[in-house]
User: Fold these one by one.
Assistant:
Number 1:
Amino acid sequence: MAYSLLLDCDPGLDDALALLLAHGDPDIQLVGVTTVGGNVGLAHTTRNALQLREYLGFPEVPVAAGASQPLTREAVNAAHVHGEGGLGNVTLPEATLPLSEQHAADFIIETLRASPGAVHLVATGPLTNIAIALEREPAIARWAASFTIMGGSYTRGNATPAAEFNILADPEAAKIVFDADWQVVMIGLDLTLQAQANSIVVDRLKALGALADELIVPLATFYFNPKVPDWDGQAVHDVCAVAYVARPDLFSMRPARVDIETRGEFTTGMTVVDFDPLVPNALIATKIDVNGFWAYVESVYAKVAAART
Ligand code: BDR
Ligand code: CA
């Protein structure tokens, strides 16, 4: 089975690991990468995407930059998690290939328009580009083969007690996206925190040689803090969203209605989830086969590592 996938992202440690998965899985055809300001500013997320494209070796895939700011708010970032440049301690060679001249939103529209029903759209950053694309062309909601986000949660936040970072960063965009005429596949914190890169996983990844030394392990361990309760290892949130497209069999899903809190004093950015809705607008991942997930991810990373030697 081959899946065409367009990744909208803010690399970002785990976005970079998600990009590696999308590039490396032979069942996934990566058709574009769009960037948004989020974990760090747009200049950094775009530079990182361009550098990753050349380092990993998918020069034919367009990279298009999008929104540097949320729709209406001041930008927030997560540089304290991802490092000032967004990729922790990883330093990659400067890119030489050009950025697409299109805005990310237009690239998304044109890519989905060109192949209706064929391209799976995945968003692993704030939802600003997707909201702009929906406002410019609502039909993308029909054209996308599926739409999956890493974002939100139904129990807790990480950026605040109530809100997950990607939703908090641009709640107005998230509201537009969840209110659009499609089913949002929500891979939230409740799911991603089940599949942390613990020491057993990291030891196995270390066996992948130079790719692991230079990229995978530094990305997967940069902000791990063993003193944080419930942290067995660093979460690789965005990897789970890409994995869902190719391996939905690894996930347990429940239909739900998700509304976005945009005005709460303490709850702005919260995904308010009703698992017994009259009209569902989302499919929420509740459980992941952790061993199956890591076996899949490791096998894909191993293919990329082998192809580089
Ligand atoms: C999400 O926020 C970002 O920091 C990560 O890249 C991920 O997309 C986790 O809350
Ligand atoms: Ca991200």
Number 2:
Amino acid sequence: MAILTESENIAPRRPIMAANWKMHHDHLVAIQVLQKLSYRLQKTDFEDPDVVVCAPFTDLRTLRTLIEADKIPVFLGAQNCHWEKSGAFTGEVSVPMLSKLGVTYVIVGHSERRQFFGETDETVNLKTKAVLAGEMNPIICVGETLDEREQGRTNERVAAQTRAAFAGVKSVDAERCVMAYEPIWAIGTGHTATSEDANTTIGEIRRVLRDVVGSSADVIRIQYGGSVKPGNIADLMAMPEIDGALVGGASLDPDDFYRIVAYRA
Ligand code: PGA
């Protein structure tokens, strides 16, 4: 695997492109989409990043079977979880349940969950620790609102979210975490942060991580998310701090997502 990025200090980090299908694609459509993506992935020779598909819970069993049967080179991801292993939590899904399905990544603290489903910095921390304890990898989302940005509070906001998410997380476990910097005003709006701005904020997140988990910060992959498209991925990935993308809208179409994954091809 080629070394694609190098932070100011040390470690090469393997790029990671994650599709966040949100509440799209029932399990029948999911089969078609993954098959198309698989066809593209297997027919092309390029230096590949890790590819993750974060699908609705109802798709996971079907996708797992397909991934195994066709040896598709993608990791399966979920979009949320509960932090308890089991219990009277109607409507929730636990980490061990996801793990049994071969899920390896779980999005934690997406801004839509913070905004619409009462996710707090505290529950993000509980979920982060639960995912790590379940031997999976959280994709921890942070990002500022437009108001916070206009008030010059971006760094303060993402620093607070980052510190809270990693409270009580050991450095050795932190290395299995992925973070996603997703400015809320850029999600699903067509407005992307400039590559330079995204790089600066992600650099700031990494500085906070160094303070919290030491040199493990240089191993943690930090994605950018918010209106990532085939047309802007190369500029984003050219930035030294940006290790990949969390892709919503453009991940629904397997051709578009493939063009993001294979941005170097
Ligand atoms: P978007 O969503 O790519 O549609 O902006 C990104 C996300 O919410 O993860």
